[in-house]
Each structure stands twice: as structure tokens, then as C-alpha cells.
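user:
I keep going back and forth on a fold encoding question. Separate attempts, laid side by side, tell us more than any discussion would. Would you put together a sequence-and-structure record for a protein of your own picking? Write it directly below this note and I will take it from there.

assistant:
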Amino acid sequence: PPQHRWVFRRRAGKARLMQLRDVAFIILAALSAGAAADTTVNAAKVQILFTPGDNIAGAIVAAIRDAKQSVRVQCYGFTNRAIGRALLDAHRRQIDVKILVDQEQFEKGAAFVLRDLKQAGVQIKLDGAHRAAHNKIMLIDGESAESKIVTGSFNFTQAAQKYNAENVALIHGDKTLAQAFDENWKRHWQHAVSFD
């Protein structure tokens, strides 16, 4: 295939390839729809949502409720109580829930929902190794063929749902992409610190 169709990423001496056309297809689908859109890329279902207008928090809660094995979260801030309750419910259902949050935002109080999750036994670490740990992702059942990836500009906050212009892509069933997100999550988990 022509070189312009591939993005190269080097890790540990191995080249990993991601098809740029897939990313372009997702963006074009979103732009042509002008609002929430569902499409399929390489057998993965992709749902694109926007605020204002779409209930992104509700879609994330529904994805968490469907979790069967694990939920991995990376976030900058976390004040959305509905998403917090869904994670707590998943933890109570014996789903392996682990959360990474930006250390500075947590210390400023922009992640207060996480204190309740920590008290319930959810593993939470603070990522202070960067100017901003600005990832906003959720990886649900990343080990399975039915993985779900939540990614976009949407912080897991009340403001993101109620006041901001945000976007999110929910990607269902792309195990290769889920593995890439999982590897990135694990790198951050290793250098992040626990809190009491």
C-alpha cells in the first residue's frame, strides 16, 4: 500500500502500523453526520457523540454496565457522579476497575468523585510525571474481542456533559486498537503513585 496510508510508530525496535485511512474514515463519518454517528471500520463499530446535544455520560455509563472483566480509566478530571456510580457498581460486580488521574487536578479537588471509589476499594493512582496527564480514555474489557474504547475530548466531569462542546468516540470490537490503548495505560500505571 502507498506510504501515505500508514502511520509508523516505533516501540522497542518494532514498527507498529495503524492505517491512517481508518482514522480519516471516522473523522469523515463524524463530519458528514453533523451529530451523533455510528459507523463500522474494519468490523469495529464506532459511535461518535458530541456535546451539547448527545448524552455522552449516559453512553459511557451504559458501556461500563456492560463490562464483563475490566475497566481501565485515564482521566484529567473526574467529577461526573453518574460515571463514578457506574464504576462503583462495576467494582461491586467483581469487575477489575483501575483508574489513573492527573495528580495536580486531583489535588485541586477536580476529581473528588474518586475519593468515594478509593474508599470502596477501587485501585486509583495519581499521574504526576507529566505537565498534564491529559488522556481521557476508558478501556472496557480490553482483553476480549468485545473490547470497548472510549476516547475524545470529553473529561469525565459534570461540565463536559452540561456546559462544554466536547466529542467522544466509542470504538467497539477492535482488539488491536484496544491493545495499543492498554499498553499505553500500563506504561502510565507503572510510574503513577498510589494515594491514601
Residues 22 and 42 are 8 Å apart (CA to CA). The helical segments are 20-33, 56-65, 81-92, 103-107, 113-119, 158-162, 175-191.
